[in-house]
Amino acid sequence: MRPRPPACGQAVISPARGSNRHRLRDRLAGRMRDERGDVPGWVLVTIMSAGIVAVLWPFAESYLQQILQAALDLVAP
Prior knowledge:
Elements: H1 15-33, H2 41-75
């Protein structure tokens, strides 16, 4: 007995293609769950920002003090 062709508008999915799709989905889901070995992006951004501030602080300290003092002088009675 021959298998019937699919009705008009129905997709034909072979078992091999479907299983590959499920395997890929499971593998990607496993990677998304297991992030213990990776450093999160926000940690890297925080460390890099602190490093930039530490490097630029000696050059910008006097300028920042002048800006802060000028702002405080405008607010003070």
